[in-house]
């Protein structure tokens, strides 16, 4: 039930991000991080409460346990974080919370040396080394650990025989592969306003509209306009209910890939955005930007 509650928190965050996508992206990232942390702490405390109800304690422990449960009934939180003032009912919950401030990653994979700040993240990562290949190609027998990898592979058997040797993306014509390869080696289209360069002309033209203020892509249902076709396509999913990005671990689906990536970080405990000054890592770019202010 606590997991369902946690997922409900994520859905609220996703809805907020979806409606105010262009104006409040960084704010939503920070809210997502805060809500996620609070949900995890609550889940941890309830988990320990469940354990204490199930275990049989000796007489010498009865008085201590009784006082702790009494504190929980009254809402008392005797364990306080010295850095942010947040209170906890359990000492272990406080210890796990402090890692958020220190950046410590005490759980290390013995296979590849990768470290995580939570044991759950390490356990999930270990499946990369241990789990069997669950998704098998019915045409050639090659197996994969993720459905997305199988889908990419299937393009070879379909009508997309031309595959990029750098990222694995496939195309139906060699000319399209040539155009794609520019994304890896050259960016001939440069914006005269800000100097940003692009590998494809259509991306360059989309970018130029951000300077002119033009929004040629309009939603036929609510008339909202966008300066990028991709933004319109993402917006249309609100009306259609389509959620193309699905988590293979828990089955939750998302409208936007960014929300899906943030959700996957919750499973892995991965901090993908490191600070170039102190080496501390963060789960999203917005939090890293906020952290960088302290180095100025």
From TrEMBL:
C2H2-type domain span: 79-106, 107-134, 135-162, 162-189, 189-216, 217-244, 245-272, 273-296
Gene3D superfamilies: Classic Zinc Finger
Compartments where found: Nucleus
Molecular functions (GO terms): DNA-binding transcription repressor activity, RNA polymerase II-specific; RNA polymerase II cis-regulatory region sequence-specific DNA binding; zinc ion binding
Biological-process GO terms, alphabetical: regulation of cytokine production; regulation of immune system process
UniProtKB keywords: DNA-binding, Metal-binding, Nucleus, Repeat, Transcription, Transcription regulation, Zinc, Zinc-finger
GO cellular component, one term: nucleoplasm
One Pfam short name: zf-H2C2_2
Family designation: Belongs to the krueppel C2H2-type zinc-finger protein family.
Function: May be involved in transcriptional regulation.
PANTHER family tied to this protein: GASTRULA ZINC FINGER PROTEIN XLCGF26.1-LIKE-RELATED, ZINC FINGER AND BTB DOMAIN-CONTAINING
Full protein name: C2H2-type domain-containing protein
């Amino acid at each position: 039930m606590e997991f369902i509650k946690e997922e409900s928190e994520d859905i609220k965050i996703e809805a907020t991000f979806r409606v105010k996508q262009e104006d409040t992206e960084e704010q939503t990232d920070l809210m997502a991080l805060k809500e996620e942390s609070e949900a995890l702490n609550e889940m941890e405390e309830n988990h320990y409460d469940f354990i204490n109800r199930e275990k049989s304690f000796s007489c010498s422990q009865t008085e201590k346990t009784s006082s702790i449960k009494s504190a929980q009934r009254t809402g008392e939180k005797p364990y306080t974080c010295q850095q942010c003032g947040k209170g906890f009912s359990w000492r272990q919950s406080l210890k796990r919370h402090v890692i958020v401030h220190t950046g410590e990653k005490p759980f290390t994979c013995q296979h590849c040396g990768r470290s995580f700040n939570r044991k759950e993240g390490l356990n999930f990562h270990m499946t990369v080394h241990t789990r069997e290949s669950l998704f098998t190609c019915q045409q050639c027998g090659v197996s994969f650990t993720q459905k997305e990898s199988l889908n990419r592979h299937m393009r070879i058997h379909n009508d997309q025989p031309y595959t990029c040797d750098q990222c694995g993306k496939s195309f139906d014509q060699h000319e399209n592969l040539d155009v794609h390869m520019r994304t890896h080696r050259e960016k001939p289209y440069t914006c005269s306003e800000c100097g940003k360069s692009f590998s494809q002309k259509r991306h360059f033209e989309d970018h130029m509209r951000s300077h002119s203020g033009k929004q040629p892509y309009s939603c036929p249902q609510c008339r909202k306009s966008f300066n990028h076709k991709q933004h319109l396509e993402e917006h249309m999913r609100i009306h259609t209910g389509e959620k193309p990005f699905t988590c293979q671990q828990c089955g939750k689906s998302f409208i936007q890939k960014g929300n899906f990536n943030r959700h996957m970080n919750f499973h892995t405990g991965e901090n993908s955005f490191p600070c170039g000054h102190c080496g501390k890592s963060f789960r999203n770019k917005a939090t890293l930007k906020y952290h960088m202010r302290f180095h100025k």
